[in-house]
Each structure stands twice: as structure tokens, then as C-alpha cells.
Specification:
Layout lengths: L3 H20 L6 H9 L5 E5 L15 E6 L2 H14 L3 E5 L12 E7 L8 H11 E12 L5 H18 L7 H7 L3 E8 L4 E7 L4
Parallel strand pairs: 1-2, 1-4, 2-3, 4-5
Antiparallel strand pairs: 5-7, 6-7
């Protein structure tokens, strides 16, 4: 079973190849999905599991961006990307399950392709709710179990092997996880047979 340490080791090892591997996913329109999601960010922004910084080109220039990841190797690449883009960003080595930010610290929180890897996703979402302002927004771009029966069965059959290799559980029901967290879902958009999903939510602290 995966734990924080071996997941971190997988991320560190995979960091130099992450951007190259994601070129293969461009046929799914992921670049456009990133752009459509992140361009609605505003104010002080926290990106959870920022990885190599693939979302950085699409943030409005007015955003004050903070990025965290528990992989130091991923953060090194994100820092280089931020410098190339002339983006002002603060990067921190941090576990998303235990965020060292004050309550109500951020106007926007972004999470892309991370819910599949979190050991305790509900704990992360609880932290997300805590640090998001009452009138803030939480933006997700994720992949999970397909809405196509045959694809979903294939995901289920290969999930354990894929998780052991990549640290990614690609058969999670992302919508149900976010719903269970108590976040107020404002919109949901599926693509590529329901595998890719963009979700906009609010903290709903009342």
C-alpha cells in the first residue's frame, strides 16, 4: 500500500519526465482545460500539488500565486518555469494534508490531477475548506473513473498496478469525493468519456 514516503519518492523520481509524458495527453485537450479553469482564478491563489507548474502560463497577471508540493524535485522545475514566464510565485515544500497557512488565507485554491494521488483526500479537502475565504472559490481539474462502462472496468482491473507504478489511483469517483467533503459544488464539466472532470466549488462553511 502506498504511503506518503514512497509516494514522494515516486514523484521525485518522475519529476524530470513529467512534462514530456504530459505531451501525450494533449490529444485529450488538457491544455485547454487547464486554461479554462485557471483563468478564473483571482486574488491570492494557492495551487496544491503544483508539480512542475504546468498551470502557471494561464493565471491572470493580477494573481498572487503560492504553490506547494511535497516533492522537492517537482518544485525545482516549477521554479524554473516561473522564472521563464516572469511569474511572481512563492513555492513551499509542504504536505497538502497539513497546510501551514492561517484560516481564510486565500481567495482561490487550485488542485489539478492530485485527488487521484492523495492518501487521505478528504483530509486535504478539509484543509482546503479551512484556508479558503468564505467567499472564495476552489477549482479542480481531475481525472477519475470513466462514465463508459467498458473503460471503467478496464480502470478497475488495472488500478492497483497503475497505483503501485505511478502513485495514481485512476478509478476514483472524483465528484463523490468532493461532494462528501462538504464543499458546495457550483459546476461540473466532464470530457473524454467522463474520465476528465472540471469542478468549481465554494467552501460552504455555514
Amino acid at each position: 500500500m502506498l504511503n506518503d514516503q514512497n509516494l514522494k519518492e515516486k514523484c521525485d523520481m518522475f519529476a524530470p519526465y513529467y512534462d514530456t509524458s504530459e505531451y501525450l495527453s494533449e490529444i485529450l485537450g488538457i491544455r485547454k482545460l487547464r486554461k479554462n479553469l485557471v483563468r478564473s482564478a483571482n486574488g491570492r491563489v494557492l495551487e496544491l500539488g503544483i508539480g512542475t507548474g504546468k498551470n502557471l502560463p494561464y493565471y491572470p497577471d493580477s494573481c498572487e500565486i503560492v504553490g506547494i508540493d511535497f516533492s522537492s524535485e517537482m518544485l525545482k522545475i516549477a521554479s524554473k518555469r516561473a522564472n521563464r514566464l516572469n511569474k511572481k510565485i512563492s513555492l513551499y515544500l509542504m504536505n497538502c494534508e497539513n497546510l501551514s497557512f492561517l484560516d481564510n488565507s486565500f481567495d482561490t485554491i487550485v488542485d489539478s490531477f492530485n485527488l487521484c494521488t492523495y492518501i487521505h483526500p478528504l483530509r486535504v479537502l478539509e484543509e482546503t475548506k479551512r484556508i479558503c475565504k468564505d467567499n472564495g472559490k476552489i477549482l479542480f481539474l481531475e481525472h477519475g473513473i470513466s462514465k463508459c462502462g467498458l473503460l471503467a472496468k478496464l480502470q478497475d482491473l488495472t488500478s492497483e498496478r497503475h497505483a503501485n507504478t505511478m502513485g495514481c489511483n485512476w478509478n476514483k469517483d472524483i465528484y463523490s469525493i468532493i461532494l462528501e467533503s462538504g464543499l458546495k459544488i457550483k459546476s461540473v464539466e466532464y470530457s473524454f468519456y467522463g474520465i476528465l472532470v472540471s469542478i468549481r466549488a465554494n467552501p460552504d462553511k455555514n
